[in-house]
Amino acid sequence: MRRFPKPLLVLLASRARPLLRNEAPLPLLRPPPTSPRSRLLPFSTQTLAPGAPPDAAPAAKPAGLALLENAEAQESAGDHQKALDLALKALAPLQESHGGWSLPVARALRLAGAGASRVGMHGDSIESLGAAAEIVDYLGGLRGGPEVAAVGAAVHEQLARTKTAMGRRWEAVGDLRRALELKSGCLKEGSVELGDACREVAEAYAGVLDFDKALPLCLKALKIAERRFGEDSAEAAKVRRLLTVVYTGLGRNEEALEQIELVRMVYGRLGLDVELSQVEIDGANVRILLGRSEEAMNDLKRVIQRASKESDERALAYITMAKILSSMERLGDSKRCLEIARGIMDTKDSVNPGRIAEAYAEISMLYESMAEFEASLSLMKRTLVLLEGSSDMQHIEGSISARMGWLLLLTKRVGEAVPYLEGAVDKLKNCFGPKHFGLGFAYKHLGQAYLEMDQYESAVKFLKLAKDITDAAFGPTHEDSIDTNQSLANAYGLMGSYKLAMDFQEQVIDAYKNCDIDSEDLREAYRLQEQLRKKAQGSRSAVFPANALPVLPEHND
């Protein structure tokens, strides 16, 4: 029978609570023009026109530069609407005095893009910043000298911020990486600024769960911080906390624990009690992964004794303690810990919605693991309300929507599941990219929902997308890969496409045989294959398919 699956691991991105800011990733710029050309700019009234011939003397038009400098001053002062207005006014005189494909125009476009983003005009922001990026590329990027590289880095950093505000974290990481490349060419090797830039890009990669790319950047940032501030400094400890997240994401838990112990000593010496509690909670979670629950429990008891009664740290300690007690099947004690944690967090809704949402998400997963599905669903719905309108938390919102869809599917509420799964697909794709395993789970469950609703073509479409991802991420013998193939066999069988159904049923059988287990699952797969063969031959007695919905787990309280 289908086993009760592990909860989605997408929330691992949010484990870096103190570390991960809103950052994201991908498309590199289109090739720069071989020669300057006209281009329509956003805001409908501006055109990026070719400049004057190289041998022509620029017209004396200081008004454009004055407007540009004033716009930059307004941005620094935090008046983004005024900065936007001034940047737009500067464009025409700057094009006349310096040419459309010039650095001052790129600076003005960056200012306009930043201002547009901050006042909610994200589409115009992307267009303006895209034009600025093209100009920087045309001017040679790093080859254009330090000033061009610095402007280019600022452009790509703003592109990343705007895309993150739009929920496109995956695309934003690529812009942050490009900004780092440009900075690397004009910053001194080993400088604090370069170390900060490496850490920020590492955080962004960790935020989209690309830990392999995060690791070398994080190690470089740590090396710079240790040289500049000392191995026992708070600055180095901050990078070590990120390194802990990266090592945990890579499954290198012993190395993660080593970093936690180093950070713990630094925070203890500096008297940073809140940070110390946060690190000890992180350490407890890593010890749980290593099977050292007793040590983890001791860490959590220290946090509870140290933290103030209504603090976030105390609540998070109780949540982690509930996780340990649940694994020991002490469900009553686990639920009491969750009740205490909820009592603390319920008073903090307006203080830090993102952190509260992360805590609620963890509590809901624990309720789910105890088969307390209604309690889990209720808490997830409340969490989504908290996250509503918070574009920088869409990675959590997508994860929760996916889990809600799964639970509704599990409890036979198929019609309710579909909107949550569809929403999850959009958010997870934007936050983690088109090949992330969490997206594969959401595709699979959406396909299974459509299968239950007799919408076979839609079911096949999403199940095929799921198969591509789960096969690549886990291999064909993983339970989710097998389940996806079985669902595809069921869908094609119901459509009357028996040859395709037999092909996928054969893949299910091969996967079970490769697991070298003569299990009930394998016997059931053979039975279904035989029923499919009979169906193809026109037998009316054939019974097919298997139930597409997952089976509720048995649970002993």
Give a topology summary.
Blueprint lengths: L38 E2 L6 E2 L13 H16 L2 H19 L4 H16 L3 H17 L7 H20 L3 H16 L7 H16 L3 H19 L4 H16 L3 H18 L2 H17 L3 H14 L5 H16 L3 H15 L7 H17 L3 H15 L6 H17 L3 H19 L4 H16 L3 H19 L4 H17 L2 H17 L5 H17 L21
Antiparallel strand pairs: 1-2
The value of Rg in angstroms is 27 Å
Strand composition percent: under 5%
- What series of H and E elements makes up the topology? EEHHHHHHHHHHHHHHHHHHHHHHH
**What's the overall geometry?**
globular
What is the number of beta strands? 2
* Mean of pLDDT: 85
The major sheet is characterized as: 2 strands, antiparallel
What separation lies between the terminal Cα atoms?
21 Å
Strand order of the largest sheet: 1-2
As a percent range, the share of helical residues equals 55-70%
Low-confidence stretches: 1-34, 51-61, 547-551
Counted by DSSP, the helix tally is 23
Structural class estimated from helices and strands: mainly alpha
Task: Tell me what you see in this structure.
Helix 4 packs antiparallel against helix 5, helix 5 runs antiparallel to helix 6 and helix 19 (437-452) runs antiparallel to helix 20 (456-474). 70% of the residues lie in helices and 1% in strands. The protein has 23 helices and 2 strands. It has 557 residues and is mainly alpha-helical. It has a two-stranded antiparallel sheet with strand order 1-2. A hairpin with a 6-residue loop joins strand 1 and strand 2 (47-48). Residues 1-34, 51-61 and 547-551 have low confidence and may be disordered.
